[in-house]
Amino acid sequence: MSPTRADLKASLVARYTQLRDRLAARLGSQDLAGEALHETWLKLNDVHDDAPVADQEAYIYRAAINMASTLVAKHRRVLGGNEIEDILKIADDGPDPERIAIARSELAHVWKVLGELTPRQRHVFVESFTGAMNHNELAHHYGVSVRMIQIDLRNAILHCARRTRRKNPFAERAARVSTR
Question: Which residues lie below 8 Å from residue 148, measured CB to CB, with a gap of 6+?
Answer without folding.
Answer: 139, 142
